[in-house]
Design goal:
The protein is an alpha+beta fold. It has helices at about 65-70, 85-95, 100-115, 120-140, 145-165, 170-190; strands at about 5-10, 15-25, 30-40, 45-50, 60. It has a five-stranded antiparallel beta sheet. A hairpin with a 3-residue loop joins strand 1 and strand 2 (about 15-25).
Length: about 190
Amino acid sequence: MYKINTYVVYPMYGICKVIGISDNKVNSNLVECYVLECEGENITLKVPINRVKEYRIRKIISKAEAENLLNVLQTKIHDIENNWKIRYQENEEKLRSGDIKDTIEVARSLFTRNKLKELSASEKRLYEKAYMFIVNEISIALKKDKDEIEDIVSNALEKSAKKFKTKPLEKEKIVKENTKTKKKKKDTEEE
């Protein structure tokens, strides 16, 4: 059981603070619930205590885990899926898992992909969500200011992106896609 004023991670909501425990009626049954204040979403949720595992709510990582994950952030990603729909679905699934390592994988791959070709609006939102989940959790785990952690995380993502090497044909394809997109925008603007 989580204590009041403890921070937890709720997948897709991010960092939440346990601000209370209340009894609520659910289908005419009295159910004990955590009252969670979700920082990133600016909402309050009630979650039945007996369903915490099902919702994948977990405790914040330790200081040692946070320090280790800052090193993981700098490592090279393997491959990036070219099909944006598949990539989006895979990344959304990873965020839903609530696992910080999956969240880091999402941030690294989307950050690197954005260096090669601009992300779609939905992928940008997914990246921003992953990025903030990482910053918020690590700042709490290390008891450091979010601005300081943002700088550290951003630098680590830059290092990771520099290590990524695209295959020559893949890079050529991305450059051609970018050129076509720019030409379409230019043609549209001239009309």
